[in-house]
Amino acid sequence: MEERRLKDKGPAGELMEVKVDVPTDDPNSTHSDARPPLHDRDPKGVNKSLKVTFEDVIAEPPSVRSFDKVWVWSHALFEVSRLWCYRLVSLLLAVPVSLAAGLLFAVLSCLHIWLIMPCVQLLLINMHWVQTVWSSILNILITPFFTSIGKCCGGVVIRLAKEDAR
Question: Can you tell me the mean pLDDT for 26-45?
């Protein structure tokens, strides 16, 4: 809830404070003026598989070990290079890819809303008679056939027995 405070002077010239709670997560709202979260940037866990650490990639068994300083510096260089390479690539690609993804989803949403769903509804409305005819064909021809096959095969009993190996 966003909190807004209004200060107004009352009838006697005294300062009066009014507190207004404005809900920001309205389910009917189409616009969001909320900023994206800065700390938890993957709240739905979409990229769980990308949580790669040094220990996931490089591991030395107890029988073969490098010098301790080599291990520490390797760990530090891995983490720093991974972080800064990601930041550099995301600096170059994040905005154009976000723009392209936004345009793509906007076009797909528009096509779905204004083209695909009206066509589907048109087919559903006009094809009701096909559903009625198909249902009648299934009930008259196919259902009795499979019902009788089921009754014939319903009496079959299969027993598994192990044979003694001699």
Answer: 68
Q: Which helix (H) or strand (E) holds 18?
A: strand 15-22
Distance CA 154, CA 76 (A): 69
Name 10's Cβ contacts closer than 8 Å, sequence gap at least 6.
Answer: 16
d(CA 164, CA 166): 6
pLDDT value, residue 55 = 86
Q: At what angle do helices 117-126 and 128-137 cross, to 10 degrees?
A: 50
Say how far apart CA 1 and CA 25 lie, in whole Å: 8
C-alpha–C-alpha distance, residues 37 and 44, integer Å: 12
Tokens at 64, concatenated: 């073969």
Which residues are CB-neighbours of 8 under 8 A, at least 6 positions away? 15, 16, 18
**What pLDDT score does 17 carry?**
62
* Mean local confidence (pLDDT), 13-31: 57
Quick check: helix, strand or coil at residue 2? Answer: strand
- Grouping H, G, I as helix, E, B as strand and the rest as coil, residue 27 is coil
